[in-house]
Every structure is written in structure tokens, then in C-alpha cells.
## 1
Amino acid sequence: MFDLTFNVDDKGMLTPLTLAIEQAVIAGWTGRDPVARDKHIAELEAIGIARPATTPIYYRCSARRITQDDRIEVTGGDSSGEVEFVLIGWQGRIFVGCGSDHTDRKVESYSVTVSKQMCDKPVASVLWELEEVIGHWDKLILRSWAVIGGARVLYQEGTLDAMLPVKDLIDRGFGGKGLPDGCAMFGGTFAAKGGIRPADRFEFELEDPVLKRKISHGYDVIALPVLG
């Protein structure tokens, strides 16, 4: 368990809230549309990553992999980010945030579970109350950009109507018992435009076009040398 301090956005007013993060769950293959879901599976198969045992599937990684830092260090040049919404349970409430499931793709080719543990998972410092957005959840937009060789390109974009509904996602992952307090769950992602590839910097956002607000974050990726 460790503490992270967020700012809860309530009609433009930011209120600090410190949450004790006890577990991290990375939900994968959460697409509502089986065609789009299978496209992402095929995208990963193309780089040697085996199909999942189930869809959706709920991987676990160390809670301390979650960070609000603006830079992370990775081993070698085979990792990349993925924008995802993040659900955090706290005292019976659920908050919505945005993060990146940064993953080592080389390791992922032989063990997805191990790959999830290899890299830090950057998250933005702002949260929304789920109840404020659940009525227009499907209209929320996830986007990411990759900075490669100095050029910033749109990497992912899609609306949450492509993902499993929140209740369904939570029920499947926790046996209908609700999201546990202190659990941060990443909710899945979209296929990358132009294919999965590493970047020098990764930026992401969750946009609410109804309440006209965004949650944004970005981080530099520092590749450490592989010497043997």
C-alpha cells in the first residue's frame, strides 16, 4: 500500500484527495465490439504476442508501479504506452482518471503478466467522480500522442462506447462485488494508429465533451542500456 494525492475536479474546483493505493489491475481486451477487439489482438499477434486466455482478462501488477511522475525509465527500446481510463475505488465511491499502461513489448511476447510488471504506469493527477460522468460515459474520448524523433503524432483515439460498460467491466473482474477500496483498475485501450511502436515521449488525455473538461498527462521515456 502507498499513498497518492490527486485533485478531484468538481465543476472546475480542484480539491486535494490522498488515496491509499493497495492494488493495481490492468484489464485487457475490454472492447465492446468484437471486431475492434480482435483487431487489437491481431495487432499484438503481429509482433509475436499470444492471444489472451479470456476476453476480457484482468492482469495484476505491483501497485507501486503507478506513478504521477513526468518521466519513467525503461529497459531498452522495446516498450510503449497505451492510453486508458482508470477507475479507483475509495470508501464506497469510484473515481475516474487517465493513465498509460506502459508495457515492455519484447517481454510481452513471452509473458504478458511479466511485461505488465516491467514498467511504471503513469497516471494524471486529476480525478472525476464516476457519478458525474456515468450518464454520458460513452461520449468520453481517450487520446494519446507519441513523440518520435521530435515529431508529435496522434497515436490513439476513440470514444468509450467501444469499451465494455463500467458496471460490466467491474462485475466481471470482481465477481459482482464492486471495485474494492484502494484498487486502481486500468480499463483497456484502442489500437495504435500506424501500429505499436516506442516513443521518446508519450502524452495522453481523457476528454469529457459534455462537461467540457479534460484530464491530461505526459511523460518522457528514458531508455536504459541493455548490457547483457
## 2
Amino acid sequence: MSVTATALQSVAYAVAGAVASYFAFVALLTVPFVQNQVIYLNNVTLTWFKDVNYPEQWGFLHNQVTPFHLRTGDGETLHAWHILPPGLWQQHAEELIQEPAGLTPDITARKSFELLRDDPDALLVLYFHGAAGTLGSGHRPPSYKAIYGMEPNRIHTVAIDYRGFGTSTGSPSEQGLKTDALTLARWAMNEAKIPPERIVLFGQSLGTAVAVYMANHYAKLPEPVHFSGLVLVAPFADVELLTATYRVAGTIPLLEPVAKFPKLLAYLNRFIRDKWPTKDRLAEFIRLHEEASSGSSGSPRPGYWVSILHGEDDYDIPWAHSEQLFWHAVNATEPAGISFEELEKEKPESRVDMGAGGWAVERRTARGLVKEQILKNGLHDRIMGYPAVSLAIYGAFHHGREPR
């Protein structure tokens, strides 16, 4: 056998081995445990050698962040951070500095909790982070700072590590994360006594699915609960579409090669346990608000505010997912519906071009607003700390009323 033939044979074996390994990996994705690791990546902490009970390591002021625990109804313990806006911290610095540092056994005994509960002007963001990591990983700490950027005296943030993430107990699942989100919302409204009209739901990546679920869940109750707004950063439409487009670490395609064979992809999607149908839940949420009345009381629903932000250079979750979400939301505002193609033709009429900063388009009705903002740069995580997020949070709190 010639040297050339031997080389070609070696290449053929290598290609065959790579293909076989890939399809073995695809087969493993039908196993629920493997699915969990791929969807949630909860065992990748990204905060090695750092104690998440001492947030000063991420540049926060001493006791600006209070770590505490929440207990879920099914017996799990969630690790949480309550983040004070810096202007408020400065006003009460002497008392805050004297308090013990680290994990508190009773959040209600802390000055920070008092400042949240007893201030009628306090605003609260419930923060749902993406897959992998902990409360202190990557660009999350800078994003907390962006959240209170427009109002450094009023906007508090409470973030949780879902079950199985960081030091929280348990193992993640769609049902489990739903329970975690509801636990946080009940704590905010029942213990911290913050009315929903002073609460904004913020989600990034995986967290957008959690935030949309919770907004829709509360809107569907016999006596609906309506939050001030939804801010969704780098969202995905649903897990089935995500499997066809997602790239791990922005480089390794998950099922993109399989997506070239729609029937095979559809077959594999039958094995997905956690569907996270965000586009359908968001559409249902919008339809509920577009109705004239609410629940058994018959009183009008308050206006809704949904802001969707995505980076055009997001290699993890392509911004086409935000296009899908925006379309499903707008379609829900139209009694006769609107096709994706029809909406694309309409967009230029209301599109605001911001040059190198990207562009934005919105659909406003008598009942509320949905806004899509695509930034030229931002990647998947860096965008969270951008001023666009600060403005979106501000708008979600102050739509339909004058800011104080």
C-alpha cells in the first residue's frame, strides 16, 4: 500500500471515529441525567476557590450583599443574595458595617431586609441567572450593578442559585426550577411585603425561561398577580429550537449537524424531558393581558411591559431566538394573528437604528408594550452589564406612570 493510500485510510478512520463518537454522544442525550448536565451545566461552578457567602470578593461594599437561604415547599434549600443599591448602603453604612458578615441565619433580622420591607418607595428585581455557574460567576456581579444603575437609591436585587447550583441542594429540572422561582416570588411578596407592581422579573439565557414561566403562572391565577415588567436578556424560544442552534461555549455545536435532517431532529426531541416552551408561554401571557378583564373580579388587567435584549454576536444562543419570541408576542396582540414574514415587512416602519449600537423595534397596544433590542456587540453574557439593561429595568418599573 502506498504512503498516500495509507494516509487516506488513516484520515478515513479518523473521520469515521469522530462521526461514531458524535452519534454516541447524540444517543446519550436521550438519557435524562445527561440531558440535565447539557441543559443546566449546574456542576460547572466557575467560582472555584471563592466562598459565595462573602460577596465582597466581587467588588461589593462590605455587607452590601446579604447571603441567605430560602426553603422550598419540597424541602430544598436555595442560596440567595440580597443586593442593596449603593446609594442606600451609603445612607446606612455605619449600621450595615457593624453587622456580621457572611451567610445570615435570619435575613429578616438584617438591616438590609428592613430597608427593603419598610420603604414604600423600594423597588425589587427578582433575578434568574443562566445555565452553569453560581451567583458570583462570570458577568453576573457586573449585571447586578447595571440593574440598580438608573436608581442607586431604590432598586434592590434578590438572586437565587437554583437547586443543584452552587451551594443550593437538590438537582435541577424544569419542575424544580419552577418551584424555586415561585419560592422566591412568595418570599418577596409575603415576607418582604413588596407588592408585585414594584417587582420586575429579570432573566438571562436559561433564566428567561424561568422568568416567563413565573409571569405567566401568576397571570393565569383565578385572582391574577401582575408584576411591573419582564426583562429578558439572550433568551431562547424553547429547548427544541435551542437544540438545533445551541453551541456549547459558543463553539461546539450540540445538534446543529442533526438539524440538517428535520425528521431525525424531531425524533430526538421526543426524548427531551424539560421543554421550557418560552415562546408559547410568553404568547399566552400577552393574550391574557390583551383581554379586557381579569379573573373573577372582572377588573381590568394592568398594562404589561416586556423588553427583550440580545447580542447580534451571541454565539451561544443566536439572536434569531429573540426574533421568534418577539414574533410570538406580537402575534398574540393581533386578533387575526400575523405571520413572521408579515411582521418582518412591518418592522422597518418602527425600527430605531442606533448605528454601531444596534437597533430596536417595539409593538405598543392599548394594553402594553413588547420591545426587541438587538445590540451589535454583547456576546452571550457581557451584555448583562450594559447600560441598555439599566434602561430596560428602569422602563419596566416606570411604564405608565411618572417616576418618583
